[in-house]
Amino acid sequence: MKMAVLLSGSGRTLDNFHEKINNNTLHCSIEVVVSNVGDALGLTKAENYGYPAFHARTNEEINSILSNYDIDLICLAGFLKLYTPPPHLARAVLNIHPALIPSFCGEGYYGMRVHRAVKERGVKVSGCTVHFANEVYDEGPIVVQKCVPLADEDTPDDIAAKVFAVECEAFPEAINRVAAKGVEYFWP
Fold it and tell me: Which residue segments constitute the domains of the chain, with CATH numbers given?
């Protein structure tokens, strides 16, 4: 699959994609990287990897950039904004959420906010969910979920590290699954 990667931060997920593509365990190509944050480290990493990299503030600007590329799938890799894709890609936007949906999800639940909420609630497992995005936060069809056990003494930072470790496996697995089955397979 030909992917666009949208990000807002450090590009750790982009690093993971790049590594997995290079070791032939992620079966796709990254055509373009776009960030809504102008000084995002992920943009610098994208340029260093040789991917076209752009800053765009609005959905319209992002979609204008994407229109210049042949894209099958848009991956939200730490993209902290509700994204509205162009109509022909409306069902082809994958997101990763740092919890097991339907828990700890929805508007306002992202990044460390999720891990602090998980710690406060005292749950014994957390994990990540790769799902298709739609117009409502964290409600699209689920493609892959991975769990991690939590210890009582885990801090939110510990939880974040455990979850990110499984994210590095789950997101590529989900992309490969979508490539094998097709986007429409996952939509009711």
Answer: 1-90 (3.40.50.170), 96-188 (3.40.50.170)
Q: What is the DSSP letter of 68?
A: T
Separation between Cα atoms, residue 28 and residue 3, nearest integer Å: 7
Active site residues: 97
The pTM assigned to this predicted structure is 0.94
- How many Cβ atoms from other residues are within 10 Å of residue 163's Cβ? 25
Instruction: Of 139, 140, 148, give the one whose Cα is nearest residue 178.
Output: 140
Distance CA 188, CA 109 (A): 25
> Rounded to whole angstroms, how far apart are CA atoms 90 and 81?
16
- pLDDT, tens only, 132-158: 998 888 889 999 999 999 999 999 999
Q: In whole angstroms, what is the distance from residue 129 CA to residue 78 CA? A: 13
Q: Give the model confidence (pLDDT) of 153-188 as tens digits.
A: 999 999 999 999 999 999 999 999 999 999 999 998
